[in-house]
Amino acid sequence: EVQLQASGGGSVQAGGSLRLSCAASGFTFDNYVIAWFRQAPGKEKEAVSQISISDGKTYHRNSVKGRFTVSNDNARNTVYLQMNNLRPEDTAVYYCAAALGNGGYDMWGQGTQVTVSS
Question: Which residues, 6 or more positions from 8, have their beta carbon under 8 angstroms from its beta carbon?
Fold first, then answer.
């Protein structure tokens, strides 16, 4: 079965850290762009970070630059989102998604809740 499995969410205080994992099964990441999205209550889903597996290029939205790092481990077929210096406004359900080449994100993992208290 082809799927993405997101994990690693939790509850931390402001300034804390969490590392989210997105593991693929049934396929390999080689030619994919893997992205992290988040959705806070009452807000639209927004893209947070992404990594192009083929060339390692990354993107982070401005509000997380310098705090979040996206990386991949090809041996484990897993993408990570290291989140440091978390803020209450980072509270959301985080999802990972996969896009093949320049295609749309048509494969999604289940969400993992991140809660940051002040």
Answer: 18, 19, 20, 21, 81, 112
